[in-house]
Amino acid sequence: MKGILGVCGSVVEGLSGLAKYGWIFLRSFLQSRSATAARIVALESQLDVCLRGREGKRIGRFSDSFKLLWVILAWFWEGWERVCHAMKPRTVVGWMNGVIRGYGRWRSRGEVGRKPISLEVRELIRRISRENPLWGAAKIRDVLLDLGFEKFDVKTVRK
């Protein structure tokens, strides 16, 4: 009796698996070509990661190109979470946040160092300093402002 139930159970299991794959096949015809292409790229990339692990390379480490691919898929494809099998969707969201942070850091970077001062202005600062030895850098800077030059930092004038 156990043998017949076991055989029937495996037949039912096989038929349900076949129905599942049939539904996936039918759905690929009903989806747009771009959605199907995105799905294929997503699944192929994950398969590549798994096969790379079988070759003895480090498994569980995703390359930068893999991460970038998934960030792009997550931005432009609505159903990306359904085919995310090699990692959790929140991992991809973390990668997206990292890209956004990096972009913001890149956009807000400032110029490093002091602005260069022309030779003419440097000579003028030296001349004012020699002619007025009791004036400090702040006073010289204020005089330069009164003369119409751009505003310099006190440390720049002192240097």
What is the secondary structure topology, with strand pairs?
Elements: H1 2-30, H2 33-54, H3 64-76, H4 89-107, H5 119-131, H6 137-146, H7 154-158
Count of extended strands: 0
The overall number of domains is 2
Succession of helices and strands: HHHHHHH
Mean pLDDT: 82
How is the main sheet built? none
Oligomeric state: single chain
Strand content: under 5%
Can you give the helix content as a percent range?
55-70%
Radius of gyration: 33 Å
What characteristic shape results from the CA principal axes? Answer: rod-shaped
Structural class call reads mainly alpha
Distance between the termini: 98 Å
DSSP helical segment count? 7
Uncertain runs: none
